[in-house]
Amino acid sequence: MKRSFLSLALLLFVVHSALAQKVNFEEFDLDNGLHVILHQDNTAPVVITSVMYDVGGKDGDRERTGFAHFFEHLLFEGSENIGRGEFMKIIPANGGTFNANTSQDRTYYYEIFPSNKIELGLWLESERMLHPVIDQVGVDTQNEVVKEERRQSYDNRPYGQILSAIGENLFKVHPYKDENIGKMEHLDAATLEEFNTYFNTYYVPNNAVLIVAGDIDKEKTKTLVKQYFSEVKRGPDVVRDFPKEEPINETIKAQKYDKNIQIPAIIAAYRLPGQATRDAYILDMISTYLSDGKSSILYKKLIDEQKQALGVQAVNLGQVDYNIFALFALPLGDVPLDTLLSEMDEEISKMQNELISERDYQKLLNQFENRFVNSNSSVAGIASSLATYYLLYGDVNLINTQLDLYRSITREEIKDVAKKYLSPNQRVEIQYLPKKDEQ
């Protein structure tokens, strides 16, 4: 009976996967090096125009951290043809929405409009790239905005320093050691010349990808793209040569104090190969197996059955140069942090020494299929995926083939990768504490 159930489940999985619609796209380059990807979907009268720049928190002078995140805000200030503050008024006035975000590896801007406003979306992004106004008024205004964001999202938010605690202990020489939002003293000390130099270095067409997706006519869109972006001058090629981290061969123990919390936490973080490697995909499956949902291994064990934790999570944070795999748990009552860590280690040890069950393996495949389908269920999701796969993975067609990659991973590989990377002597263990004891 068990074998029949698994066979039926596998059949349903294959059939459902076959129904996942292929995403068609077309790519071309302008003479200035701007890479353009078009995706036509005329099922709804909506279009997204987006630009992803190959610049993030890891880029730039380490005495001027946070520039990429700062520019996420600054480049909404206006341009030679858009008045100060008008950028964010024009979009909703024309029925659109917009946003931007920055990671350690890239910065992403997008607008979603009714499809008859495609030209407006392209004009706005070309203005941002071609001649934004970077002046002292804008810098001072956004400096205050970023400081307030830091206060709300990092300094005064419970557990808001977890990523910085991991980064500063897991990385010693690579710029991932620095917070993406940067240090405020670095932004305060920066000159207007430094901001302009940063823009001219990284916000150039040959360091970006433009996505236009949705209810478009591809030939007309090509004409519009060339009309609005061809005059942008090519910039210098960005050259990166980040220092390499030495392997961790002995457990590193650290403590971090947070004035905003009352319940401590335990974190175990591992520095792993970058997100485009096969091992990184396997580690995605491991983190999902451990803690994705209330039926996951760690949730059932520590929260439901043993009632030792208020929360537990395993995360595989994808980055270009190094991934971060982290275990996190909040104790229930007086349960020691070391106990939580031991219990999580016990489940990892099982993965290292025996294959996960066929049933759990099938569940994993179903979860990744759902993620894959959901990520391509909207024009905005497709645009983001196209940009990400091109810029950070070097393979746009992963939007169609990534699920096959996950499906090719075997239970034996899951066991081998857990054994290869997730041993206690390869990690940083961080006690995240409410406050330092008074002496």
Automatic annotation (TrEMBL):
Residues 1-20 form the signal peptide. This is Pitrilysin family protein. Coiled coil: none annotated. Keywords: Hydrolase, Metalloprotease, Protease, Signal, Zinc. Residues 36-171 form the Peptidase M16 N-terminal domain. Residues 190-367 form the Peptidase M16 C-terminal domain. It comes from Gaetbulibacter aquiaggeris. Belongs to the peptidase M16 family.
